[in-house]
Every structure is written in structure tokens, then in C-alpha cells.
């Protein structure tokens, strides 16, 4: 048995626990969404998020305000890639590929009109899921962070460590691919 | 390719069609300020290609939004919540152990006295031991019970209401009822965000007779919570907004309560559990609550950060 408990330490531990409950717990759904899209399945996502939450708890004192969701998702993303590197080394995209991906492609031909938008809107969720799952990793995470997790361009850029313009072009490419697939248009070459 | 290439463009938007497309994405994503949004909308009105792209993007966003999210199972939530609680049993253990130790010493001293007084029967000694054990158990029970109460002070609405009332009373006695003085939610919300990482909607209701004075941080059940202070004639209204916990029960209809001589109204929405308290009359408080709720619904932007 050690000496009498230090009052200050106990208090700050409690504050940290309260902070964890405020900062982390409300965003578990978003954390699971992101981990699920990055790892590819729900069971792995729970493992990854649990791992991430352990890290979040260890680092909760370092959370300096701002958007708690973006903070947690940054940790979840890192945990996802650590997990992928360990468990599925082949599926991790090499960094070299990203530069190619970020080249802005020539605009796909835009002869389409409203019927295409209607097709996209009517796409069932299974088709949307499959289309998102088929996106290259860098595009997938950008579109998931924006359209599913609802982060801003600035938050995504900070998280990925890329310029905001890159976030915008990746988002546009990702959505272009999704629209092509869901709108029943031919793949632009 | 663009039909407007020969027209001079003074709207500050990119000439490059590819970059212009990014602006459409930014518009759909709510990333443009009002001036830029207006300029992009003007371009769209003049360019069917851009308008079609916009329609596709809006459709895509709807389609992606309809993808089911993974649900947070109770089991998983409990597992994660347990991460933060790892330390708590030890903390509960420490004072318990300390008091048990003190008890033991006391008992040992008493034991000596007893020893000197009469080296009586074994029966007496065993009785003494049982008494000691019982008192340790009792102390431990009280210590853990107290810890538990502190940790889950929001389990009973009543104890929460009392805590809210005490906070309100203290604020009336303090030099100033608020930590941040401002009638502007753009000042109050970031201040709260910066202090405790959460801020409730703070609509300005001065025209309804409820002026926003500012905000402060209340600590209830060892959790810091944002509180807004409004003035209505000579009365102050404190509005504590506790971020909703998953287990907290929903109170969509305003619930009239009272605690510590103050009137309270309690209700919840998707994000917060609200407690409005005042020494004003019940009709005034009810009117405040009704207007506050209407203001949030009418202007959800008041709830967004900033």
C-alpha cells in the first residue's frame, strides 16, 4: 500500500475521465463508421476503435479544445492504418501512389443531364456502399471523412497532412467516380 | 468549351473549368462564404453544365447519407466507457484502504487497552475482531457509496436539480453571475468551447425580453457543464445544458420541477439535457423555455459552433 492518495491527482484523474466521456463517447458512431470504411468490415472496426480509444484516453490531457470529433477521428485513422499494416499489409496503399492519384484528371464529358441525377438519387444503399468500397483508399477516406463523418475541408486537410486543395481535388475525383458508377455512365478513360 | 469564355469575369471565381467544378463541390459542402456562394450560384444559373454537376452532387450526397451507419452496441459502448473507469476502482480502493488502516490502528490500540484491562476470554477477543471487521466493512461501504454517488451524480434527476439550484444560488451571491460577459453568442460559444469543449445553442432573445448576459461553467457531479445566463426584468435565469449521455432518459416535453426554493424546467433535445432555473414566476420561466426552444428550432445555426 502506498501513502495516502494525493487529492490533486485524484481530482485530475476524475476530470480526465469526465473529459473522456465528453470528448470520446459521443463520437463512437463516427469512429466506427470511419474505421469500418478504412478496414472494410464492422468486426475489425470495433477492434480498431477500441485500440484508438485507449490511445485517446492516454492522450486526453492533450486535447486542447476544437472539434472533438476531428480529434478522435485522427486517432482512429492512425489506429486503422497501424492495424492494416499489421493485419493486411498488402492492402495499404503505398505513398507513391498518392501523387498519381492527386493529378487532376481531365474532365469527364458532361453531356449528362437531370436523369443522371435522378439515377444517383435512386441508387440503393447497397450499391452506394459497394461503390464507396471500390474507391482507391485515398479517395475513400476523403469522401468518408467529408460525407459520412461531416468534417470540414480544413479539418480533413489537417488530419491527412495535405493542402486543402488536395482535399478538394481528391473529393472531386472520389465523387466523380461514385457518380459515374451510380449514374450508370461509362467510365471516363 | 465554356460558352462564356469571351465574357469578362469579375466574380473572382476560377477560369479553369476543373477548378470551377471544385467550387461547386465547395458550395455543396457549405465551405463557401456568402459572397462566393452567390457568385457560384450565378455561374450555375448561366451554365447548364455546372447546374447539372450541382444536381448530381446533391443527389450523390443524399445517396451517401442514406448508407446505414454502424450502430454503437451497448456492449461496445460499455467496453469503451470502461477504459476511462479503469482507474476508478483503485481510487475508490485507496481511501477505503486508508480508512481501514486507520480503523485497524484504532482497534489495535483498543485491543491493547483491552489486553491490559483483562486478558479475558477468547470469546471476547473474537467478538472484538468481529466488531472491527464490521466497522471496516461499514467504512468501506460508506466510502465506496460516496464515491459512487460522486461518479454518477446525474443518475437521479432530483440530485441534479439540487446541484443546479445550488449553482444558481451561488451565482446570485457571487460578484458576477457569469464567467464570460457578453450578449453575443459568437463570443460566449467559443469561450465555452475553449474551456470545456462543448457549447449549447445560445440564441439572442433580447427582443423577447430575455437578454443574454453571458455564460459560465458549472461543475455538477464532477462534470463541467456549460451554463448560459439570461436576464428577465430583475430576475436571472440560469440555463444549464448537460450534453446528453446515451443512458440519459429523454424528456421531450418540458418538465416543471423545483429545488432549493427555485423553480426549474427540465427538457431534452437531441444534443443536450436542459435545466432552466430562476427565481422568476413560473409563467415567466415557462415563457422563457418556450421561446428558447422555438428559437433553437427556428435557427439551428445558433447551435452550430462559432
Automatic annotation (TrEMBL), chain A:
The family this protein is said to belong to: Belongs to the sigma-70 factor family. ECF subfamily.
Pfam families: Sigma70_r2, Sigma70_r4_2
Residue ranges occupied by any RNA polymerase sigma factor 70 region 4 type domain in the UniProt entry: 127-175
Name of protein: RNA polymerase subunit sigma
Domain called RNA polymerase sigma-70 region: residue spans: 26-88
InterPro entries, A to Z: RNA_pol_sigma-70-like, RNA_pol_sigma-70_dom, RNA_pol_sigma70_r2, RNA_pol_sigma70_r4_t2, RNA_pol_sigma_r2, RNA_pol_sigma_r3/r4-like, WH-like_DNA-bd_sf
Organism: Mesorhizobium atlanticum
UniProt GO MF annotations: DNA binding; sigma factor activity
Lineage per the UniProt record: Bacteria, Pseudomonadati, Pseudomonadota, Alphaproteobacteria, Hyphomicrobiales
UniProtKB/TrEMBL annotation, chain B:
Name the record gives this protein: Anti-sigma factor
Lineage, highest ranks first: Bacteria, Pseudomonadati, Pseudomonadota, Alphaproteobacteria, Hyphomicrobiales
Amino acid at each position: 500500500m502506498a501513502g495516502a492518495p494525493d487529492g490533486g491527482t485524484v481530482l485530475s484523474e476524475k476530470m480526465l475521465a469526465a473529459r473522456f466521456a465528453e470528448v470520446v463517447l459521443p463520437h463512437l458512431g463516427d469512429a466506427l463508421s470511419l474505421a469500418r470504411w478504412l478496414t472494410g468490415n464492422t468486426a475489425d472496426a470495433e477492434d480498431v476503435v477500441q485500440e484508438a480509444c485507449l490511445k485517446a484516453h492516454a492522450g486526453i490531457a492533450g486535447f486542447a479544445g476544437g472539434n472533438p470529433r476531428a480529434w478522435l477521428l485522427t486517432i482512429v485513422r492512425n489506429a486503422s492504418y497501424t492495424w492494416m499494416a499489421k493485419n493486411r499489409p498488402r492492402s495499404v496503399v503505398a505513398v507513391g501512389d498518392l501523387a498519381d492519384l492527386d493529378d487532376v484528371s481531365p474532365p469527364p464529358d458532361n453531356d449528362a443531364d437531370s436523369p443522371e441525377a435522378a439515377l444517383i438519387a435512386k441508387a440503393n444503399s447497397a450499391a452506394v456502399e459497394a461503390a464507396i468500397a471500390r474507391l482507391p483508399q485515398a479517395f475513400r477516406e476523403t469522401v468518408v471523412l467529408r460525407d459520412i463523418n461531416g468534417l470540414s475541408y480544413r479539418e480533413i486537410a489537417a488530419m491527412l497532412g495535405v493542402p486543402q486543395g488536395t482535399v478538394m481535388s481528391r473529393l472531386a475525383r472520389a465523387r466523380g467516380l461514385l457518380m459515374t458508377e451510380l449514374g450508370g455512365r461509362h467510365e471516363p478513360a | 468549351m465554356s460558352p462564356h469564355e469571351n465574357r469578362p469575369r469579375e466574380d473572382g471565381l476560377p477560369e479553369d473549368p476543373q477548378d470551377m467544378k471544385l467550387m461547386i463541390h465547395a458550395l455543396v459542402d457549405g465551405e463557401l462564404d456568402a459572397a462566393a456562394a452567390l457568385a457560384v450560384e450565378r455561374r450555375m444559373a448561366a451554365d447548364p453544365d455546372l447546374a447539372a454537376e450541382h444536381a448530381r452532387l446533391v443527389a450523390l450526397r443524399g445517396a451517401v447519407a442514406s448508407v446505414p451507419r454502424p450502430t454503437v452496441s451497448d456492449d461496445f459502448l460499455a467496453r469503451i466507457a470502461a477504459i476511462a473507469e479503469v482507474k476508478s476502482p483503485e481510487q475508490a480502493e485507496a481511501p477505503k484502504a486508508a480508512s481501514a488502516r486507520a480503523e485497524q490502528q484504532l482497534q489495535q490500540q483498543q485491543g491493547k487497552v483491552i489486553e491490559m484491562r483483562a486478558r479475558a476470554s477468547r470469546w471476547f477477543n473474537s467478538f472484538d475482531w468481529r466488531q472491527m471487521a464490521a466497522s471496516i466493512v461499514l467504512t468501506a461501504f460508506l466510502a465506496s457509496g460516496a464515491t459512487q454517488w460522486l461518479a454518477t451524480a446525474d443518475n437521479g434527476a432530483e440530485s441534479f436539480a439540487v446541484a443546479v439550484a445550488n449553482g444558481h444560488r451561488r451565482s446570485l451571491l457571487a460578484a458576477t453571475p457569469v464567467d464570460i460577459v457578453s450578449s453575443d453568442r459568437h463570443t460566449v460559444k467559443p469561450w465555452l468551447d475553449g474551456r470545456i469543449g462543448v457549447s449549447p445553442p445560445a440564441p439572442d432573445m433580447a427582443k423577447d425580453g430575455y437578454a443574454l448576459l453571458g455564460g459560465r461553467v458549472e461543475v455538477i457531479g464532477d462534470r463541467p457543464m456549460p451554463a448560459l445566463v439570461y436576464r428577465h426584468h430583475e430576475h436571472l435565469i440560469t440555463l444549464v445544458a448537460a450534453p446528453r449521455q446515451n443512458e440519459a432518459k429523454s424528456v421531450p416535453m418540458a418538465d416543471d420541477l423545483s429545488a432549493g426554493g427555485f423553480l426549474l424546467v427540465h427538457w431534452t433535445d437531441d444534443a443536450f439535457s436542459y435545466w432552466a432555473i430562476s427565481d422568476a414566476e413560473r409563467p415567466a420561466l415557462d415563457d422563457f423555455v418556450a421561446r428558447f426552444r422555438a428559437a433553437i428550432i427556428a435557427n439551428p445555426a445558433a447551435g452550430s459552433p462559432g
